[in-house]
Design a protein that fits this description.
The protein has two domains: 56 residues, no CATH class; 77 residues, PCRA, domain 4 (Orthogonal Bundle). It is built from eight helices and no strands. The longest helix has 14 residues. It comes from Raoultella planticola. InterPro entries: DNA_helicase_UvrD-like_C, DNA_helicase_UvrD/REP, P-loop_NTPase. One of its GO terms (cellular component) is cytosol.
Length: 138
């Protein structure tokens, strides 16, 4: 499907503004959108989704991608911020503030700040065990 879409939209004369405005792709379920969106993105084709969300804008997709980014790079603070409490682990704002402040003070990534706080036993109780479960995958 991806190859057929790509070859159809890349034919000469198909990329004029008028021709693109006259095109529509209909699909029955949102599960089908990913392949179509990837092909359109790869072909640098603008597109709009009506009646739903773009595949890569869905919360569960952003969460999954953030987990993968954090696995690949423990220094990715944006990914850490997104997954630290997804699913809910009971890590509150005060605990996150301590992690962030430690990160700034010691010039560490958020992941490294967690490691240091756990090692130094600065955190206790539910927050410490929740961070330990998240950090324990290292």
């Amino acid at each position: 499907m991806k190859r057929a879409l790509s070859s159809t939209v890349s034919k000469p004369g198909r990329r004029t503004a008028g021709a693109l405005e006259q095109c529509a792709i209909l699909y029955r379920s949102n599960a089908q959108s990913r392949v179509l969106e990837e092909a359109l993105l790869q072909a640098s084709m603008p597109y709009r989704i009506y009646g739903g969300m773009r595949f890569f804008e869905r919360q569960e997709i952003k969460d999954a991608l953030s987990y993968l980014r954090l696995i690949a790079n423990r220094n990715d603070d944006a990914a850490f911020e997104r997954v630290v409490n997804t699913p809910t682990r009971g890590i509150g704002d005060r605990t996150l503030d301590v992690v962030r402040q430690t990160s700034r003070d010691r010039q560490l990534t958020l992941w490294q700040a967690c490691r240091e706080l756990l090692k130094d036993k600065v955190l206790a109780g539910r927050a410490a065990s929740a961070l330990q479960r998240l950090y324990g995958a290292d």
